[in-house]
What we know:
42% of the residues lie in helices and 21% in strands. By secondary structure, the protein is an alpha+beta fold.
Amino acid sequence: MAGLGSYEPGPRILALAGRVMHRFDPARQASGALRALCEATGFTTHFAIRNADEAVYVDKQEGRRPYQMPSRIGMSVNLHTTAIGKAILAELGDEQVLAICRRTGLAPRTPRTLTSEEELLAHLARVRALGYAIDDEENEPGIRCLGVAVFDHTGRVLGGISVSALAMDLDLPGLQARAPQVVAAARDVSAALGAAASTARR
Length: 202
Protein backbone atom coordinates (compact mmCIF):
# COMPACT_ATOMS: atom_id res chain seq x y z
CA MET A 1 0.00 0.00 0.00
CA ALA A 2 1.24 3.50 -0.79
CA GLY A 3 2.26 5.62 2.12
CA LEU A 4 0.62 8.93 3.02
CA GLY A 5 1.37 11.50 0.35
CA SER A 6 2.84 8.95 -2.08
CA TYR A 7 1.38 7.74 -5.35
CA GLU A 8 1.31 4.34 -6.97
CA PRO A 9 0.14 4.06 -10.58
CA GLY A 10 -2.83 1.79 -11.03
CA PRO A 11 -3.09 -0.93 -13.66
CA ARG A 12 -4.92 1.32 -16.15
CA ILE A 13 -2.16 3.93 -16.02
CA LEU A 14 0.52 1.25 -16.39
CA ALA A 15 -1.31 -0.25 -19.36
CA LEU A 16 -1.58 3.18 -21.00
CA ALA A 17 2.14 3.85 -20.44
CA GLY A 18 2.95 0.49 -21.98
CA ARG A 19 0.91 1.31 -25.08
CA VAL A 20 2.60 4.71 -25.42
CA MET A 21 6.09 3.20 -25.18
CA HIS A 22 5.15 0.45 -27.61
CA ARG A 23 4.15 3.09 -30.16
CA PHE A 24 7.37 5.07 -29.61
CA ASP A 25 9.31 4.49 -32.79
CA PRO A 26 12.87 5.93 -32.77
CA ALA A 27 13.02 5.81 -36.57
CA ARG A 28 9.89 7.90 -36.85
CA GLN A 29 11.18 10.38 -34.27
CA ALA A 30 14.45 10.72 -36.19
CA SER A 31 13.06 10.78 -39.72
CA GLY A 32 12.71 14.56 -40.01
CA ALA A 33 16.30 15.29 -39.06
CA LEU A 34 17.60 12.43 -41.19
CA ARG A 35 15.65 13.65 -44.23
CA ALA A 36 16.83 17.23 -43.69
CA LEU A 37 20.44 16.05 -43.50
CA CYS A 38 20.02 14.11 -46.73
CA GLU A 39 18.55 17.14 -48.49
CA ALA A 40 21.25 19.46 -47.15
CA THR A 41 24.19 17.26 -48.18
CA GLY A 42 22.74 15.46 -51.19
CA PHE A 43 24.18 12.19 -49.88
CA THR A 44 22.58 9.08 -48.42
CA THR A 45 21.87 9.20 -44.69
CA HIS A 46 21.33 6.33 -42.25
CA PHE A 47 20.02 5.88 -38.73
CA ALA A 48 21.08 2.71 -36.93
CA ILE A 49 20.36 1.47 -33.42
CA ARG A 50 22.73 -0.61 -31.34
CA ASN A 51 21.54 -4.18 -30.87
CA ALA A 52 23.92 -5.94 -28.46
CA ASP A 53 27.24 -6.31 -30.33
CA GLU A 54 26.10 -4.87 -33.66
CA ALA A 55 23.99 -2.07 -35.10
CA VAL A 56 20.84 -2.33 -37.21
CA TYR A 57 19.72 0.20 -39.81
CA VAL A 58 16.22 1.44 -38.96
CA ASP A 59 15.99 4.30 -41.46
CA LYS A 60 17.68 5.30 -44.68
CA GLN A 61 17.26 8.30 -46.97
CA GLU A 62 18.73 7.99 -50.46
CA GLY A 63 20.78 10.93 -51.64
CA ARG A 64 20.52 12.81 -54.92
CA ARG A 65 23.23 10.79 -56.63
CA PRO A 66 23.12 8.57 -59.74
CA TYR A 67 23.63 5.51 -57.54
CA GLN A 68 22.22 3.89 -54.40
CA MET A 69 24.05 2.60 -51.37
CA PRO A 70 23.91 -1.21 -50.92
CA SER A 71 22.60 -0.79 -47.34
CA ARG A 72 18.98 -1.52 -46.46
CA ILE A 73 16.68 -1.07 -43.48
CA GLY A 74 16.95 -4.07 -41.22
CA MET A 75 20.56 -4.82 -42.18
CA SER A 76 22.95 -5.55 -39.32
CA VAL A 77 26.46 -4.05 -39.42
CA ASN A 78 29.64 -4.47 -37.41
CA LEU A 79 30.50 -1.87 -34.80
CA HIS A 80 34.26 -1.83 -35.49
CA THR A 81 34.02 -1.39 -39.27
CA THR A 82 31.36 1.31 -39.70
CA ALA A 83 31.21 5.03 -38.91
CA ILE A 84 28.00 4.62 -36.90
CA GLY A 85 29.43 1.60 -35.10
CA LYS A 86 32.63 3.38 -34.14
CA ALA A 87 30.66 6.43 -33.00
CA ILE A 88 28.70 4.08 -30.71
CA LEU A 89 31.85 2.36 -29.42
CA ALA A 90 33.44 5.72 -28.66
CA GLU A 91 30.65 6.37 -26.14
CA LEU A 92 31.48 3.18 -24.24
CA GLY A 93 34.32 2.58 -21.83
CA ASP A 94 37.44 0.80 -23.07
CA GLU A 95 36.60 -2.30 -21.04
CA GLN A 96 33.17 -2.50 -22.67
CA VAL A 97 34.76 -2.07 -26.09
CA LEU A 98 37.28 -4.83 -25.41
CA ALA A 99 34.54 -7.15 -24.17
CA ILE A 100 32.63 -6.62 -27.42
CA CYS A 101 35.80 -7.17 -29.48
CA ARG A 102 36.53 -10.42 -27.69
CA ARG A 103 32.99 -11.70 -28.19
CA THR A 104 32.79 -10.82 -31.87
CA GLY A 105 36.39 -10.67 -33.03
CA LEU A 106 37.75 -7.93 -35.29
CA ALA A 107 37.31 -9.64 -38.61
CA PRO A 108 38.43 -7.56 -41.60
CA ARG A 109 35.80 -6.46 -44.09
CA THR A 110 38.34 -4.71 -46.30
CA PRO A 111 42.13 -4.18 -46.21
CA ARG A 112 41.44 -0.91 -44.34
CA THR A 113 39.48 -2.47 -41.44
CA LEU A 114 40.91 -1.93 -37.96
CA THR A 115 41.79 -5.45 -36.77
CA SER A 116 43.76 -4.99 -33.53
CA GLU A 117 42.38 -3.98 -30.14
CA GLU A 118 45.15 -1.43 -29.60
CA GLU A 119 44.56 0.18 -32.97
CA LEU A 120 40.82 0.36 -32.39
CA LEU A 121 41.14 1.88 -28.91
CA ALA A 122 43.56 4.53 -30.20
CA HIS A 123 41.18 5.26 -33.06
CA LEU A 124 38.21 5.61 -30.69
CA ALA A 125 40.17 8.13 -28.61
CA ARG A 126 40.44 10.29 -31.74
CA VAL A 127 36.72 9.81 -32.42
CA ARG A 128 35.93 11.11 -28.92
CA ALA A 129 38.15 14.13 -29.48
CA LEU A 130 36.59 14.92 -32.87
CA GLY A 131 32.98 14.16 -31.98
CA TYR A 132 32.48 12.01 -35.07
CA ALA A 133 33.76 8.80 -36.66
CA ILE A 134 34.81 8.08 -40.23
CA ASP A 135 34.65 4.83 -42.15
CA ASP A 136 37.23 5.29 -44.90
CA GLU A 137 36.44 2.21 -47.03
CA GLU A 138 36.70 0.04 -43.89
CA ASN A 139 33.34 -1.71 -44.23
CA GLU A 140 32.78 -1.71 -48.00
CA PRO A 141 35.40 -1.02 -50.68
CA GLY A 142 34.76 2.28 -52.40
CA ILE A 143 32.40 3.70 -49.76
CA ARG A 144 33.09 6.42 -47.21
CA CYS A 145 30.85 7.38 -44.27
CA LEU A 146 30.86 9.86 -41.41
CA GLY A 147 28.84 8.96 -38.30
CA VAL A 148 27.84 10.60 -35.03
CA ALA A 149 26.33 8.99 -31.92
CA VAL A 150 22.70 9.48 -30.90
CA PHE A 151 21.43 9.34 -27.31
CA ASP A 152 18.10 8.35 -25.76
CA HIS A 153 16.07 9.92 -22.94
CA THR A 154 18.26 8.24 -20.31
CA GLY A 155 21.43 9.79 -21.74
CA ARG A 156 22.77 6.45 -22.95
CA VAL A 157 24.02 5.96 -26.50
CA LEU A 158 21.19 4.48 -28.57
CA GLY A 159 22.78 4.38 -32.00
CA GLY A 160 24.00 6.83 -34.58
CA ILE A 161 23.38 8.61 -37.85
CA SER A 162 25.66 8.88 -40.85
CA VAL A 163 26.26 10.35 -44.27
CA SER A 164 27.54 7.92 -46.93
CA ALA A 165 28.89 8.27 -50.46
CA LEU A 166 31.08 6.54 -52.99
CA ALA A 167 34.75 7.33 -52.36
CA MET A 168 35.14 8.56 -55.94
CA ASP A 169 32.28 11.02 -55.32
CA LEU A 170 33.44 12.35 -51.93
CA ASP A 171 37.08 12.57 -50.90
CA LEU A 172 38.15 12.53 -47.25
CA PRO A 173 38.42 16.34 -46.82
CA GLY A 174 35.01 16.71 -48.46
CA LEU A 175 33.54 14.16 -46.09
CA GLN A 176 35.10 15.83 -43.04
CA ALA A 177 33.65 19.16 -44.19
CA ARG A 178 30.17 17.65 -43.67
CA ALA A 179 30.92 16.83 -40.02
CA PRO A 180 29.22 19.94 -38.55
CA GLN A 181 26.02 19.10 -40.43
CA VAL A 182 26.01 15.51 -39.19
CA VAL A 183 26.81 16.58 -35.62
CA ALA A 184 23.92 19.08 -35.68
CA ALA A 185 21.55 16.47 -37.10
CA ALA A 186 22.59 13.96 -34.42
CA ARG A 187 21.80 16.55 -31.75
CA ASP A 188 18.37 17.07 -33.30
CA VAL A 189 17.73 13.31 -33.34
CA SER A 190 18.87 12.95 -29.73
CA ALA A 191 16.58 15.80 -28.71
CA ALA A 192 13.67 14.19 -30.57
CA LEU A 193 14.36 10.99 -28.64
CA GLY A 194 14.14 12.85 -25.34
CA ALA A 195 17.82 13.31 -24.54
CA ALA A 196 18.62 16.20 -22.25
CA ALA A 197 20.04 19.27 -23.97
CA SER A 198 23.44 18.76 -22.32
CA THR A 199 23.59 15.19 -23.65
CA ALA A 200 22.35 16.11 -27.12
CA ARG A 201 25.04 18.82 -27.40
CA ARG A 202 28.05 16.70 -26.51
